[in-house]
Design goal:
Herpes Virus-1; 50% helix; two-stranded antiparallel sheet; 5 helices; 244 residues; single chain
Amino acid sequence: MGYDIERFVGYVNEGLLCSICRDVLEDPLQAPCEHAFCTACIHGWLVHHSNCPEDRQVIDVSLLRPLYRYMRNDLNRLQLHCKNREYGCEMVCSLESIDRHERECEYSQISCSNAGCTVQIERRNLDGHLAVCEYRSRECPNGCGYTILSVEDTQHNCVAELRTELELLRSEMICRVEEAKHEMESRLDSQRRHMVQKESILQNEIEELKSQMSRMMSDVRSLMAAERQHRQELEQAELEKREL
């Protein structure tokens, strides 16, 4: 959707009008056939069509290009009224700078910044409205430290608010203690399981060492028995040698 042509001062060249909405080009793109469109207009058109709305030549989104530089320069130099003219703004500036002006225009209609307030007000009157807005917040004058809305003044009770806050803090503390307790129990269970596992591993290693020692002792006894038999055989052989 382009800029309303009625906002412009002086003559606007036909080539600077969108071929779809017929308003002055906004964020323009150009087809290979050199017809120009607002970006939003041509994208919306190509959802349902595949040709140029002016000469019916086939076009695709990928074929769209930025406007020629000389046309962009002509477009940016056009002079137009601020969109807030109906509210009293008399500013006339170039199309190139209109967005910057309108973002800061004192006649722009903006929303009140207080939560819950639906008032739309001119930017220049915002401070005055905030001073009297029924949704403005302030610190309780009785010293409880709470921030209250003006509409809640008659309902605010310091003692009740502090009691509620105390209950919330108490509940939060209980929850945190329970969480810490569960976490500690979980860690202890994990350490206990780890120790039991380690104990089982150590016990198995001890049994394996006992088994190895038993086999070694058996081997030693076998070696000693073999040594005795060998000694006896040597002694017998020595006796037989002496007899011969």
